[in-house]
């Protein structure tokens, strides 16, 4: 059975697509699936650094497409698990070095060997976006609880439909429970009401992500930190398991008191 | 201290979230229909021209807006009229 290709996209830049791709990919691989990560942000290569694999790159996606090497030669094996490979993109080429049909063909080839292909999309809605969605079977949209990010997510939902990708699911990243509590940040239900797509996961804003990115060790490796736990939950939901959403509100003064006196 | 107390007793003062939601709602109505505020203004002016042939409109209260219902979108116009044009009411009678 061929694998499933998921594109991780957002419209707005910097909302956490690459972070999500790295964590979901590693999470799925650690649970025994064969996973290929594809960086489609040609010219702004990031996924290799977030994964801590930047020193192993010899060939890239553009080399494969231009016929400078075989696909297998460009796949970099992860250092933590044999189940995971990364196909980096070119750093010094233009986005239009790749065409959507070529991307489609490449993802199709990967699907023959891997269970999951995760394609990290660049920000924007132009050429790079069209490449990223070209071979995808399903889409995951990443947003943050801010007006501009949600607005762009709404636009992306429309564009995905136009390319035949219906029913994307949503990850809301960088949620700040303290701000939600004092009414200064939209909460998950607000966002789901507006976008009307299913929720795949909620990831708190967490310093741990920056620390782990500094080290090139995705946070999903650390189940004790909240964002790591959140990504771990999303991985299980992707496998079809029903996992309750983290209660990010449970840090209020009452909750703390209750915990202190042993009420929960 | 007061802020702390009022929060402790659950007196929610309305944060910026309400503003975010409302602004997002409005902007999406326009995005989704690809009707720009400019286009809506033009529509409004043309409507005004047409309707003015038949009735006298109270321009200050004349409003045309897109509204998002639960699962549909509507163009909602509020058109207060001052009086029917005499010529027309005559032919009607
Ligand atoms: N939950 C989080 N908590 C704290 N920091 C985060 C979180 N998610 C992402 N970040 C940080 O935000 C920055 C942007 O993240 P990332 O590169 O994953 O976004 P992106 O959507 O891929 O950006 P681009 O559009 O440029 O490709 C990074 O510095 C990352 O470490
Ligand atoms: Mg990125």
What is the fold's blueprint, element by element?
The complex is a heterodimer of chains A (264) and B (93).
Chain A: E1 4-9, H1 17-30, E2 35-39, H2 47-51, H3 61-66, H4 71-74, E3 76-77, E4 84-87, H5 100-113, E5 116-120, H6 127-134, E6 138-143, H7 147-162, E7 169-175, H8 177-181, H9 188-195, E8 199-204, H10 207-215, H11 226-238, H12 253-260
Parallel strand pairs in A: 1-5, 1-6, 2-4, 2-5, 6-7, 7-8
Antiparallel strand pairs in A: 3-4
Helix pairs in contact in A: 1-11, 5-6
Chain B: H1 2-8, H2 17-33, H3 37-52, E1 55-57, E2 63-68, E3 73-78, E4 81-84, H4 86-92
Antiparallel strand pairs in B: 1-4, 2-3
The complex binds adenosine-5'-triphosphate and magnesium ion (MG).
State the gist of this model.
Chain A has helices at 17-30, 47-51, 61-66, 71-74, 100-113, 127-134, 147-162, 177-181, 188-195, 207-215, 226-238, 253-260, and strands at 4-9, 35-39, 76-77, 84-87, 116-120, 138-143, 169-175, 199-204.
Structure write-up:
The complex is a heterodimer of chains A (264) and B (93). Chain A has 264 residues and is α/β, with parallel strands linked by helices. Chain A has a single domain (4-260), classed as P-loop containing nucleotide triphosphate hydrolases (Rossmann fold), CATH 3.40.50.300. Chain A has 12 helices and 8 strands. In chain A, strands 3-4-2-5-1-6-7-8 form an 8-stranded mixed beta sheet, with helices on both faces. In chain A, strand 3 and strand 4 form a beta hairpin. The N and C termini of chain A lie far apart (45 Å). The relative contact order of chain A is 0.17. Chain B has helices at residues 2-8, 17-33, 37-52, 86-92; strands at residues 55-57, 63-68, 73-78, 81-84. Chain B has 2 domains: 1-35; 36-93, no CATH class. Helices cover 51% and strands 20% of the residues of chain B. A two-stranded antiparallel ribbon of chain B has the order 1-4. In chain B, strands 2-3 form a two-stranded antiparallel sheet. Chain B is elongated. Chain B is an alpha+beta fold. At the A-B interface, helix 7 of A face helix 2 of B. The site of adenosine-5'-triphosphate has 21 residues of chain A, from helix 1, strand 7 and helix 10.
């Amino acid at each position: 059975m061929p694998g499933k290709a998921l594109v991780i996209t957002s419209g707005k830049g910097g909302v956490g697509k690459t972070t999500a791709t790295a964590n979901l990919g590693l999470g799925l691989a650690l649970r025994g699936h064969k996973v290929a990560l594809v960086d489609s942000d040609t010219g702004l290569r990031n996924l290799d650094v977030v994964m801590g694999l930047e020193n192993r790159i010899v060939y890239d996606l553009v080399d494969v497409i231009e016929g400078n090497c075989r696909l297998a030669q460009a796949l970099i094996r992860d250092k933590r698990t044999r189940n995971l490979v990364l196909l980096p993109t070119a750093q010094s080429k233009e986005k239009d070095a790749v065409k959507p049909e070529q991307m489609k063909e490449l993802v199709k080839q990967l699907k023959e060997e891997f269970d999951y292909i995760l394609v990290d999309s660049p920000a924007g809605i132009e050429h790079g976006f069209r490449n990223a969605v070209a071979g995808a079977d399903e889409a995951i949209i990443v947003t943050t609880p801010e007006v501009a990010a949600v607005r762009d997510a709404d636009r992306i939902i429309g564009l995905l439909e136009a390319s035949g990708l219906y029913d994307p699911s949503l990850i809301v990243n960088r949620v700040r429970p303290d701000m939600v509590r004092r009414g200064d940040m939209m909460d998950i239900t607000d966002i789901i009401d507006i976008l009307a797509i299913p929720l795949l996961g909620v990831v708190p804003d967490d310093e741990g992500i920056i620390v782990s990115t500094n080290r090139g060790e995705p946070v999903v490796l650390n189940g004790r930190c909240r964002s790591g736990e959140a990504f771990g939950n999303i991985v299980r939901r992707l496998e079809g398991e029903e996992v309750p959403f983290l209660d990010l509100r449970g840090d209020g003064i009452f909750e703390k008191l209750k915990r202190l006196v042993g009420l929960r | 201290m007061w802020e702390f107390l009022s929060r402790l007793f659950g007196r929610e003062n309305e944060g910026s979230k309400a503003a975010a939601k409302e602004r997002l709602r409005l902007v999406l109505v326009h995005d989704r229909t690809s009707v720009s505020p400019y286009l809506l203004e033009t529509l409004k002016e043309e409507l005004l021209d047409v309707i003015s042939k038949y009735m006298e409109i109270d321009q200050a209260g004349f409003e045309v807006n897109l509204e998002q219902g639960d699962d549909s979108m509507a163009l909602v116009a509020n058109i207060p009229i001052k009086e029917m044009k005499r010529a027309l009411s005559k032919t009607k009678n």
